[in-house]
Amino acid sequence: MSCHATEPLIATRGEVPENPNREIRTVALIGPPNSGKSTLFNRLTRLRQKVGNYPGVTVEQRVGLLAGKGHEIRIIDLPGVYSLTPYSDDERVAVDVLTGRMDGLPRPDAVLLVLDVTHLSRQLVLAAPVIALGLPTLVLLNMADVFAKGGGSLDVLKLAAELGAPVAMVSATQGTGLDVVDRFLRQNHNRRPDAALLPVLQDLPQSRKWASQVGRRIDYQQHLPSAWSGRLDDIFLHKLWGPLIFVVVVGAVFQTVFGLGQPMSTAFQDLLTKLGQQAAPLVPDGLVRSLLLDGLWKGVSSVLVFLPQILLLFFFIGVLEDSGYLARAALIADRTMRSVGLNGKAFIPLLSAYACAVPAIMATRTIENKRDRIATILVAPFMTCSARLPIYTLLIAAFIPNRPVVGVLLGSRACAMLSLYVLGFLAAIVTAKILKSSVLKSSAAPFVLELPEYRWPTWQSIGLRLLDRAKVFLRQAGTYILAVSLLVWVLTHLPLHDGHAPQLEQSAIAYLGHGIEPLIRPLGFNWKIGVGLLTSVIAREVIVGTLGTIYGTDPATHSMTLQNALRQDLTFAGAMALLVFFAFAMQCTSTLAVVRRETNGWKWPVVQFAYMTIVAYAAAFAVNQVLSTLLK
Amino acid sequence: MLQAFIITLREGAEAALLAGIALTYLTKDRPRQFAQIRRRRAGRAGCAGPNGDRRRMGPEMPELRVALTDLAVGEAATIDHISLPPGDQQFLMRIGFVPGVQVRFSRRAPLGDPSVYSVDGTEIALRAETASHIMVRRGSLSPLGDLP
Predict the structure, then answer these.
(1) Confidence of residue A1 (pLDDT cuts 50, 70, 90)
(2) Mutate to test the interface with A, among B8, B94, B103 (most CBs of A within 10 A)
(3) Spans of all domains in chain A
(4) Which residue ranges in chain B fall short of pLDDT 50?
């Protein structure tokens, strides 16, 4: 190991604490990846940190307040680390926070070291350097329930004596044994752990040997992993059944999101429309009613109706992720990832890009290789994120008749949706291939994938995640989409003639739309879609809100649903071109902002935006030209 | 709404059928599974004494340095060294592939390549390109003796 990385240890070991009786105000949670720190953090703070059954879910420090009584104690949740010699950016974050070198965060007064007791001999390696930092440390042996059930045992008192720090068995998922944290934090800590007892070894085989010796001295009996995990893997990773189940699972998710989500959305839409009609008499007729109902309500509600489908999708992703099946899916999919030269670690970020590219790009911090990391960041926005769902669902429901394709198993609409996902994935793969064989060539880092034991997903965890997603979605609707709808409505009513709104074709928005029409005409889009494309640069779902407002204000389409209005106003070829355009285009300011932050500059976001827009334009052009010639 | 519900229901039936077939396969396979668990328990009991492992490996197996990829499915061995650049070496050690630790080849991925190895009670998948550089000693005792 390099000397440079060990400096913080040497610097802090001999340090005399300025005020040994100081109350604990800030406490850091540290532990190896997938040891359950975030679950514990959520328990302690009642916050909703995202947790998942695979390593590397937390890539940034999170701060929360200890829930409950008494004075305020801040808890910092850190990314998982294997050692205090940082190798990747997320590990550097953890070490910087612990040593007080992170801007805006005070040095923690105490440390909660979380170790997965079911894998203690490996995890114990981290204990020595952490305790040697000299801060009051409580060692929490997590997953005690699983450990006890599997017949594992150890002598907690002996371990505490070995480490010179208090040790407690807890279960973050069950919430058992956690009162000890509270007691620990409210104590006065005059006595610091005696770091001299512990060998802070820089040689991993050596510290591993030390950990094994400690394991023997504390009578550590490893638990027997439940036979179920292995038995399930016999099915899910079977030569024949494995890939088959993979395909069935993916197909079933899409079919249900469409089959069950569509009627739910329709019912929700009816409800929202009725609400609007009920509210209509309450406002005076005229400009105000038009603004509130045709402008704002139609704009916002046209996006809101997709909430049920998005929640359904997130429900399935949550179940797959928490149960541990996602890691198996990654294993099955690895062949494809490798053929394009992408780092195996890229799979998890790319998979989470199906929800949203922003957390996915942050999750690339687990990739040690800089070039691999940038390549993954650049391709992540091609994955079909949930912001594309509204426009996809809208156009598919409007233009593709519902016919069975594979019996009742897969309908044509689910099939179309699936093809769009595949299209995005292919774009990501091809782009990665190009990048990896040219500007971002690098030697492949070893591919490593931990397969966690299967666990039952808990309703609480999935419920919290759905709640979070719903909140984000509603916030978007309440801010961006509301603001854009307002702007679009105002533009449809300008310039005023004697206090009356102009015909739509004479309005400012039509002027704007017609201005860019020559550019988008070859793609089969009219000027209204053009305005939608302009506003959707902010975020993809904004186009639906914009179209809702424009068609809602237009007297010709005023009383129609958005679906019917579009069906009348757009050709089939144009609609398909629009779908393809959205599959490829980079229309998300939040993603661009996060790419800029993660790559420290404007170069990559600009390249990415230009590249994706050009690809989207070319692909939409091709689709429109080919389809309109074929359908003539 | 009703139609969607019926579709989902039928799909559920389909999935149940699949699970049923898979379970049949498992039941057929069960004796081997149980044998493995019994063997594992025996190995654990024998951990304290030096004879536990030798008995398991059998005397016919000579001490040999081979790559991890040369092991048979289900076979255990002790990690000897990793012949990769220091950075990669460090990386593999940090996730558990430390020289002296026991490792077992637990299964192959469906499409053949990444293989799953059990080390320190964790199942970790590696590609053959990586695993072929991890050298192990067959049939020798692990000084750290951590096989679950």
Answers:
(1) very low
(2) B94
(3) 3-217, 462-630
(4) 1, 29-31, 33-35, 37-39, 41-60, 143-148
Q: How many CA atoms lie within 13 A of A469 on its CB side?
A: 25
Torsion of CA A231, A234, A237, A243, to 10 degrees: -110
To 10 degrees, what angle do helices A325-339 and A227-236 make? 40
- Contact between B107 and A237 (Cβ < 8 Å): yes
Is residue A335 within 8 angstroms of chain B, CB to CB?
yes
Question: Which residues from A are below 8 Å from B96, CB to CB?
Answer: 122
Residues 350-379 of A with CB under 8 A from B: 368
**DSSP secondary structure string for all residues of A360-388:** HHHHGGG---HHHHHHHHHHGGGS--GGG
Question: Based on the number of CB atoms within 10 Å of its own CB, is B91 exposed (0-12), middle (13-18) or buried (19 or more)?
Answer: buried
Contact with chain A for residue B124, Cβ under 8 A: yes
Interface contact B100-A205, CB threshold 8 A: yes
B121 touching A (Cβ < 8 Å): yes
Which chain A residues touch B129 with a CB distance below 8 Å? 444
Domain spanning A3-217: CATH 3.40.50.2000: no
Cis preceding linkage at A495, omega within 30: yes
Q: What is the pLDDT of residue A3?
A: 38
Residue A161: pLDDT over 80: yes
Are B121 and A243 in contact (CB < 8 Å)?
A: no
| Lowest-confidence segment of A110-124, A450-464, A524-538 by average pLDDT | A450-464
Identity of the residue in A223, A227, A243 whose CB atom sits nearest the CB atom of B110: A243
CATH class, B63-138 region: mainly beta
Which member of B41, B92, B146 has the closest CB to residue A121?
Answer: B146
Name the B residues in 56-95 with CB < 8 Å from any A CB: 84, 87-88, 90-95
Q: Of A146, A207, A140, which is closest to residue A177 (Cα–Cα)?
A: A140
Segment holding A339, helix H or strand E: helix A325-339
Interchain contact, A83 vs B25, CB within 8 Å: no
Residue B49 is which amino acid?
G
Structure tokens at A593: 């902002």
Rounded Cα gap, residues A491 and A559, in angstroms: 20
Q: Name the minimum distance, in Å, from the CA of A549 to any CA of chain B.
A: 28
Task: State which residue of chain B sits closest to A260, comparing Cα positions.
Answer: B4
Q: How far is A623 from chain B (nearest CA, A)?
A: 31
Please report residues of A whose CB lies closer than 8 A to that of B95. Answer: 82, 448, 450
Q: Name A561's Cβ contacts closer than 8 Å, sequence gap at least 6.
A: A269
- pLDDT the model gives residue A4: 40
Domain ranges for chain B, please list them: 1-45, 63-138
d(CA B110, CA B142): 30
A344-359: b or e for each residue (b if 16 or more CB lie within 10 Å)?
Answer: bbbbbbbbbbbbbbbb
Residues 6+ apart with CB under 8 A from A6: A85, A202
- Please state, in angstroms and rounded to a whole number, the distance separating the CA atoms of residues A94 and A113: 12
